[in-house]
Amino acid sequence: MASVPMIQKDSIVDQLEQMQQRIAQRAYEIFRGRGTLWGDAWADWFTAERETVWKPAVELREKDGTFTVEAALAGVDPKDVNVDITPQDIVIKAATEHTHSTDEGQVHQCEFVAGRVFRSVHFPKPVDVAKAKAEYRNGLLTVTAPIVPQAQAKRLDIKAA
What we know:
With 161 residues, this protein is α+β, with helices and mostly antiparallel strands. It has a domain at 2-10 and 54-146: Immunoglobulin-like, CATH 2.60.40.790. Helix content is 21%, strand content 33%. The strands form 2 sheets. It has a 5-stranded antiparallel sheet with strand order 1-9-10-5-4, with no helix packed on it. A 5-stranded mixed sheet has the order 2-6-7-8-3. Strand 6 and strand 7 form a beta hairpin. The N and C termini lie far apart (62 Å).
């Protein structure tokens, strides 16, 4: 099992905005490439999103005061995986490559994905980022983060002066 470094962040908003800008730019290129004034903005956006980013399947589970996030990253080298974490969110990022060599024969079909992995997951409750861990094994990234105990409401007695 390989340990994956995690970087503590204050917010993931800037990363989400950057990814949205990349997708928007590609969607605009698709629209312009059509050569007409009319188009389907949603179809262009979804096509651009598929071309720009690979969103791996994830599962978020809560048990015994800990959140566990599992992400399917088959074929991604653990050294290429980055995890950013805040008390509310995690962002999983990686770059993947897939090439074909002519000496291995003619490729008739290929469904391997190359590009950027980008997946954000929101925690329903705040987590303790200092105690969070990320591990990668057999193509599965597992991030565990303990939930921050909720402050309990307490009634205060007022003393007369």
